[in-house]
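Researcher: We plan to redesign the surface later, but first we want a full-length starting point. Tokens attached.
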């Protein structure tokens, strides 16, 4: 059991664990299901090192590589061949692999359901995205992190082609794209909000974007109307208003977690209405939203992450809420307002 999920963060631990995998009799590699290679102390995985490891872990199901900047198709194709039970693959800081790796994964790893790629500093090519959607149509979770320089990459036609390619991933339950290039997200929101495209991620439950300042109220609402299964929604740096918050309980009845960090257009009244009407909601991320702590007197000035994990404050003068968790939300929903003027109570529920 100790060998099922080793976490390797440096060259020393790599040498120690790999030696154990190779030399142990009977073999322990067959027991390993998860491998996580961190990048502490400058540790970086190479093609030769990865190919050495995959020879001895035939039952590997999850592989997370933080220091993957030197990996190429050479090692990923060998990974696919030697680890056919792979279900989850996450490669960080890699921009060398091509469609060849995707085709190898599709050929050998029929159970692959989660794919994460940090391609800093470049956005993946249209060919890569198209191959991804064609070769791995059964993906449940997709994460693409492309770095800030990708925000100006490509043209509208190219980005639209990528969106239409991703539309073929009908089984997606999780889609995370950060940062989110406007040229990519505008056609994504337009196409995915079209009621005639009934198969556009019908099972999506987790959706996360960043740099969302270009998304209008109507664009956000149109998207929400066609994705009723969402339970987690994260739209960082958005500029939409309380109008969007007000429709969330209707369009997303299962919403449990929402991130609206950096949005200064929402108000404490809109937030209060959301909390009162969205019964399943248990977490709201509010960093840099400008929501004043004093507007939620039910918290009784208890803003510390103590044993009850009630709330957390963005210190300042005045102080702002950084997030609301389950305990804080319940306190706001069920707290006594008897000390508030009747007019203020009514205003906060409008």
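Model: Full-length starting sequence:
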């Amino acid at each position: 059991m100790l060998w099922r999920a080793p976490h390797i963060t440096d060259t020393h631990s790599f040498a120690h664990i790999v030696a154990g995998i190779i030399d142990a009799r009977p073999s322990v590699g067959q027991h390993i299901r998860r491998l996580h290679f961190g990048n502490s102390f400058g540790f970086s995985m190479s093609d030769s090192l990865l190919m050495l490891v995959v020879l001895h872990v035939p039952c590997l199901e999850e592989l997370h590589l933080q220091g993957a900047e030197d990996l190429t198709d050479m090692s990923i194709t060998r990974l696919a061949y030697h680890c056919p039970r792979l279900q989850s693959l996450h490669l960080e800081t890699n921009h060398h692999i091509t469609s060849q790796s995707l085709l190898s994964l599709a050929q050998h790893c029929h159970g692959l359901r989660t794919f994460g790629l940090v391609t800093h500093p470049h956005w993946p090519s249209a060919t890569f995205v198209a191959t991804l959607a064609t070769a791995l149509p059964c993906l449940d979770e997709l994460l693409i992190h492309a770095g800030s320089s990708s925000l100006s990459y490509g043209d509208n036609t190219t980005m639209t082609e990528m969106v239409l390619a991703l539309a073929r991933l009908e089984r997606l339950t999780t889609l995370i794209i950060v940062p989110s290039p406007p040229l990519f997200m505008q056609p994504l929101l337009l196409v995915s909000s079209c009621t005639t495209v009934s198969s556009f991620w019908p099972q999506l439950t987790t959706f996360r974007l960043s740099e969302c300042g270009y998304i209008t109220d109507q664009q956000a609402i149109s998207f929400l109307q066609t994705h009723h299964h969402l339970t987690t929604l994260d739209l960082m740096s958005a500029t939409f208003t309380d109008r969007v918050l007000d429709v969330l309980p209707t369009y997303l009845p299962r919403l449990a977690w929402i991130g609206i960090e950096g949005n200064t257009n929402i108000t404490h009244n809109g937030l209060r209405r959301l909390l009162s009407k969205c019964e399943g909601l248990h977490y709201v991320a509010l960093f840099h939203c400008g929501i004043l702590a004093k507007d939620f007197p039910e918290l009784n000035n208890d803003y510390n992450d103590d044993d009850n994990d009630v709330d957390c404050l963005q210190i300042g003068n005045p102080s702002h809420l950084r997030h609301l968790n389950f305990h804080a939300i319940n306190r706001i929903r069920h707290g006594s307002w008897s000390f508030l003027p009747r007019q203020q109570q009514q205003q906060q529920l409008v």
